[in-house]
Amino acid sequence: NVAYNWGGNKNLQTETYVFIKQVSSDGGTGGQATTTVTKNSDTTITVGARASLEPIQRLFLAGEVAGQFGRKYFLPAGTTVWDGTREREAFAFQVIGQYALNMKYSPVLTGVFTHYSGDKDPGNLVQGAASYKAWDSMFEDQAGGKLYNALFGATNCNIPEVKLGLTPMEDVKLSLEYSALWLDEAFAVNTGAQGTTTWTPNDYATYTVNLGNKDLGQEVDLVLSYDYTEDVQFGLNTGVFMPGAVFTTNASDPNRENAY
Question: What global pTM score does this model have?
Answer without folding.
Answer: 0.86
